[in-house]
Structure prediction request, 500 residues.
Amino acid sequence: MEHGSLEDSSASTFSIAEEDHTLANSVRFVLNQDPRVAFCGYSIPHPADNKVNIRVQTTGDPAKDVFKDALQDLIVMCQHVRGTFDNAVVDHRSNISAQQMDIDSNSQGCGTISKRLYQMLTSAPHSIDKTN
Amino acid sequence: MPKKGTKKGKSADDEPKEQNKLPEHLEVQRTRVVCKADAPTEGFQYAGAFAAMGIDNSVSVDKFCKNFKVMVNRLTEDDMEFDMIGIDASIANAFRRILIAEVPTMAIEKVLMVDNTSVIADEVLSHRLGLIPLDADPRLFEYISENDVPNERNTIVYKLHVSCKRGSPRLTVKSGDLEWLPEGSQLPLASPAQSGDKQKTYTSFGQSQKDIFEKPLGVKFKDITIARLGPGQAIELEVHAVKGVGKVHAKWSPVATAWYRMLPEVVFREEIRDDAAEKLVKKCPVNVFDIEDLGNGEKRAVVARPRACTLCRECVMGPTGEQVELRRVRDHFIFTIESTGALPPEVLFTEAVRNLEEKCERVISELS
Ligand code: SF4
Prediction:
């Protein structure tokens, strides 16, 4: 639901039911990065009401459009996060399996350990003997 | 905030400005949270904070996509840790909040008690049953609303029938004793006034769940103690599990916990040598510092494992307080997810991100 004035479309409060800090704070962040936004903030009128009010004041553009753009930007950001995350998981899996093959093929030479294992050992907080 | 015209022209005229560098103390204020002995100090964050110096502190979508990075450090069946770099706390926190409260799972919601002669009260027993993680993929189920009839697409039914014989030792009832009923409830409804062809039960499954789901819908861990029975005591009940989210009840939360911390950074303002160095190394409870031997008996402290730092602030209190500075990197999050077992942690995170997208889509469609 949008509350604003009919003459001036550059300032509005959007009252969104069934939402909380999760959405409101993220949208607030995205709105605050937009140079068209003069002011933006959100509030939850009462903790027992399941709604949030987001205030958007712009330098002239209709607040509704700016708000919708921000939501659209947030969607694009989320899609990028999802893509990057999935790639990172695939990378991680392939690294691990490659290393396991390393270890298998080196099983006779007990002196060699895989690079990642070495990193893990040296970065573990308690693994370094203080005497050296 | 400077007016930069329309949004579309923005990224183009920003490029040359990126070359400008802030003086170091301002760069620290922009990108770090400095933790002093008494309290952390916040720097500046808002988009136009450094506009006067020709630095654009705003995060456009293009810039975000260019700088955002993820690195997985650990990934097991039910827990993972990864680094998320180049994202604002508000969005990282949104993911965390969604993981805890809004990614759905299946959990036991209704308990039909036939017999309970154990010492544990019906309510307490039901509550314990509710918290048992189930091995069912919530994405394959639908939500059930108040007036819906429980069917094979929105309900899972289990039966628990255990008794402890007279004269035998006490019996421990484990979650593994719950038996999945793929054909639905076996308890007849109390009011069969009409003479139907089939006795009505509490559910109306049109199809066996065995034919729909590839693997049996058991419990995730078979060794959770539900109750203990003395000789002569028995429990007989049937439970109905439905889909729900953590904000309604914590039993539906898919994570044991999900949290993040900002990457710690420990820097020396000046060199710490010899005895002071030894003392500093001893002081840190998680061994962040090491001693470097400079030869001819001289030693120096070095920061060896800043990631391990818990920000206990031990090293900035007392004599080394002036020489050590503790910081956290503002946009680098070490994110940890512990799943309760229904879905693997990497799937949970993807679901959480998708959930935020859906929220945005909902609001957009409501506004148009
Ligand atoms: S804050 Fe605590 S954990 Fe971190 S380096 Fe200092 S003493 Fe070690």
User: Anything to note?
Assistant: Helices of chain B lie at 10-14, 24-31, 61-67, 89-101, 122-130, 209-212, 274-283, 345-367. DSSP finds eight helices and 14 strands in chain B. Residues B 266, 283-284, 286, 288, 309-315, 326 surround iron/sulfur cluster (CB under 6 Å).
